Amino acid sequence: MHHQFPDKDAFGATNGNPNWSYCVGNSPAIRAMEQVIRELSASDVPVLIRAEAGSGKRTVAQRIHQLSGRQNEPFVGVDCASLSREALVD
Question: How would you write 18-60 as a 3-class SS string?
């Protein structure tokens, strides 16, 4: 599944509150992104978020975690750019 998300200006901070709206705006792209986040958080699949630096990948990952069944477990974000190629190959 591949989804195109809006640019970095659309993202805000989560403030650690899962009910806090983390996105600014109500455009169709923002609403579509929120729907994808809700669908992903309801599933039990690994998620790889790819985008340019500063686009809000960690914010999206935290939101998926906050809405998931694992919300009471620690959130562990991984910066794949800092890992070696060998570490990413299973």
Answer: CCCCCECCCCHHHHHHHHHHHHHHHCCCCCCCCCCCCCCHHHH
